[in-house]
Amino acid sequence: MHSTDIAHARTPEPATGDRRRWFALAIVMTAAFMDLVDVTIVNIAVPSIQRDEGATFSQIQWITAGYALAFAAGLVTGGRLGDIHGRKRVFLVGIGGFTVASALCGLAVNPEMLVASRILQGAMAALMVPQVLSIVHATFPAHERGKVFGLFGAIVGLGAVSGPLLGALLTEGNLFGLEWRPIFLINLPVGVAALVLGSRFITESKAPRALKLDLPGVALVTLALLMLLYPLTRGRELGWPVWGYVSMAGALVVFAALVAYERAKGARDGSPLIELSLFRVKSFAAGIAVQTVFGVGLGVFFLVWTLYMQIGLGWSALRAGLTGVPFSVAVSVAAGMSVQQLVPRFGRKVLQAGALVMAAGVLIYLAEAERYGLGITSWQMALPLVVMGAGMGLIVAPLTDAVLSEVPREHAGSASGLINTVQQMGHALGLGLVSVVFFGVIDERLAPAEVGPAFVDGFTHALGWVAAVLGAIFLLMFALPKRPAQHVEGAADAEETAAVAGAKEPELVP
Question: Is 15 within 8 Å of 26 (Cβ atoms)?
């Protein structure tokens, strides 16, 4: 889940008699749950925000993409800050900042303030979330960690299912006449409680040999992504000006500069933001490509799906949230089966089957959306959503382990942090591409009667792109190892890293 090198995160084995460790676990899991639910809750409320605040479609994209971008850019640095200054201290700063940012989101007076507050919220999540694994490592002895990560998996599944429903209920309920605002304000009592209890029950820990910060690396990554994403999200509204194309081309130059800088920094002090030697491992390089492209596909689908159901079909947030339940359940069931039963027998073929199954679900959805148009029902959506969810479950659970399986033990933590970072960056890029693949086929000025058919057309067009992305993922997966290799010495570390790293994936369910 973060960049902390596990080889450097060793602490003496914690005592088993201290009951406070279970309180500490509940607190860090609550924080992880807050982050997980926050993304899903916002997706379901997006149309309500757009309607009530008069937000433009590019602002709607930035409400979601801004969080993902700030979270991605800060993940690796957040992990390093915990190593240097203490995981408990950085975790408490993160959860305090996340709570303040949630209040600012809930009290936002215009779309610009909401976008800025979401970016701050993502940055604070990047401080908070990476400490979870390290705190568990420092708090629980090795023989208890399996039970701990089992609980963590259950929390992730609960968040994937409950997020959309909680968001729908809070939005529909219009508590105190606050419309969509309670989806953010609900974090306040939870955050304050976690802050107070965390300061009391979490044990402080640091890495014996902490790596140095690479702030120029973070700045270059963020600049390159902004140069790519900003023109993508604003380009359609502004008539695709020349500066937008120049900016996107310039992003490639900045990425090249990042690689050169990271190579030099690695040679100078051994603590680059991105461990470039990892890309010499074919399975890791392919896995990073899969994670990035997968993030793009999911970023496109989930935002477009929400807009299609609530604005195009005119459904309530609650109906849209309930419609997504079969998808969430299918993801959870398939994820459990893939790791426990299928991957040990069939290896890489399970992930490739997942890509094909998910693509099949997308194509079934596309056919049904075209056939039934505005008359489509939630029940008719159930089949393609279950098929898509099953495919996604076959991919998300074993993918991190497959990518890490040939990575040297000393780089397991850095590699898992990079996996999460590129997946979040891919998600942000996918949200930016919504301007092209969805809004690009919808006229700016539509009569009320034209909105529904236009959004149905935009949705089916976007689904075609998502199916193509899944086809590309299937091909990229040929570079993954046929069967994930088992580490001998570092197996437990890699498994724990993969468990928490993989726990971030299902948060993309809307």
Answer: no
